[in-house]
Design brief:
Elements (H helix, E strand, L loop, with lengths): L1 H25 L6 E5 L6 H17 L3 E5 L6 H8 L7 E6 H10 L11 E10 L1 E5 L8 H10 L4 E5 L5 H13 L3 E5 L3 H9 L5 E5 H9 L4 E6 L25 E8 L4 H15 L2 H9 L3 E2 L4 H22 L5
Helix pairs in contact: 2-9, 4-11, 6-11
Length: 325
């Protein structure tokens, strides 16, 4: 009888502890959340990530700490998140380059980008901009293509490096328009832009927010937006689609992903609160200044979006023969 009573008591205690553990696990979040930004501080992705972290922390009631982990096209930071516990306390502020381009270029990543992450929420999306040196006699994309085809030698373009988003977008431009162009890789976006300003190369492609100060100063000339829609920062500049090139769409986007296996209820909480963040008027304005617009997709919609983007950029990488540095 005593043995049965002891076993019953132990069973009740075990049930109670399991219930307590479940209750504690369900009280997400009950400690600070780490948001890994896989790029150096100060860039557009970092700025957007810090804006999100500040606003999201207020809604979650816990601090969201930005952890910059730059290196290897964003794969260093992505690896850190892929190997983290799937509990919602370590998240990745991913982007086109991290979640779509780098997996197509790095053959031996320490994780499988297709299965290591669970997309949570798309945050921002915006077109890239094709800019040329002021000496290039082209006011729009059609004139640019015609000029490029007339040259005895291929035009040259600068990028932030082999396999960068700008590099692959230029390769897409070449494929869609049929123009010849010589790639000149630089070590970063700033050197690439400065190369075009100095006339070392004739064009480059980068985010609107990055290019616009040079365009306004007359040091570069904007030719076209390479996205699905126009930018409110340059409302008069048409897209490549409007210029007759419907396949020339290469938006830059960023969003939050979690380690695969993160509980659905945690994903739902993050999705709901991130949706509130991107609807905040201050966030909308700050994203606009970066040349992007706030986005809202469900977890399932964002999952499909990332899968489609990864397939698209893998095809571009394969067709161009681009390789990571």
């Amino acid at each position: 009888m005593q043995r049965r009573l002891v076993l019953a008591a132990l069973g009740s205690l075990s049930t109670g502890l399991c219930g307590l553990a479940r209750a504690q696990a369900g009280a997400y979040p009950n400690k600070p959340v780490r948001l890994v930004v896989p790029f150096a501080p100060g860039g557009p992705t970092d700025v957007a990530g810090r804006l999100l972290a500040q606003k999201l922390g207020a809604l979650l009631g816990q601090q969201v700490i930005v952890d910059n982990r730059p290196g290897a096209g964003g794969t260093v930071g992505a690896a850190a998140v892929a190997q983290a516990p799937a509990d919602g306390y370590t998240l990745l502020f991913g982007s086109t380059s991290t979640l779509a381009v780098s997996p197509a270029l790095y053959p031996r990543l320490p994780y499988d980008a297709a299965t290591a992450f669970q997309p949570v929420a798309l945050v921002a999306r915006g077109p890239q901009m094709l800019v040329v040196h002021p000496s290039v006699p082209a006011a729009d994309l059609k004139e640019f293509v015609a000029f490029a085809r007339r040259q005895a030698q291929p035009m040259s373009f600068a990028s932030a490096g082999n396999g960068s988003v700008g590099h692959l977008t230029a390769e897409l431009l070449k494929s869609v328009t049929g123009i010849p162009a010589l790639h000149v890789p630089y070590k970063g976006g700033s050197p690439a832009v400065n190369a075009v300003v100095a006339g070392e190369t004739q064009f480059t492609i980068d985010a609107v927010g990055t290019m616009l100060p040079f365009v306004k100063a007359g040091r570069l000339k904007a030719v076209s937006l390479l996205g699905e829609s126009r930018s409110p920062l340059v409302p008069a500049l048409p897209t490549a689609v409007e210029s007759g090139f419907p396949k020339l769409v290469a938006d830059f986007w960023s969003g939050v992903v979690a380690p695969a296996g993160t509980p659905r209820e945690v994903l739902a909480r993050l999705e709901t609160d991130i949706a509130k963040v991107v609807a905040d008027p201050e966030v909308v304005e700050q994203l606009r200044l970066l040349g992007t617009a706030p986005q809202r997709l469900s977890v399932d919609e964002f999952t499909r979006f990332v899968r489609e983007e990864a397939r698209k950029w893998a095809e571009i990488a394969q067709a161009s023969g681009a390789k990571a540095e």
